[in-house]
Amino acid sequence: MGERLLDIELMEMEVKELFFSNLISKEEMQRALTILKKEMENENKKRKGDKNE
Fold first, then answer.
1. Residue 2 · residue 40 · CB < 8 Å
2. pLDDT of residue 12
3. Cβ contacts of residue 32 below 8 Å, gap of 6+?
4. What values do phi and psi take at 25, rounded to 5?
5. What's residue 52's pLDDT?
6. Could you tell me the CA-to-CA distances from 31 to 17, 23, 35, 43, 47 in Å, in that order?
7. Pairwise CA distance, residues 24 & 14, whole Å
8. What per-residue confidence (pLDDT) applies to 48?
9. Which residue ranges of the chain lie beneath pLDDT 50?
10. How much helix, strand and coil, in percent to the nearest 5, is found in the chain?
């Protein structure tokens, strides 16, 4: 499970790099980062739930 969080963090860096390289628009970057943030929150909730069991 820990690897998934690292994967999401890596994706965030890659999305930002795509934006700074002018390969995606600001709107596309913002959408992608919003989705990744939501995924990170979901993963953290899942991990907290697993620890409580």
1. no
2. 98
3. 11, 15, 24
4. -80, 170
5. 66
6. 15, 14, 6, 18, 24
7. 11
8. 85
9. 1
10. 85, 0, 15
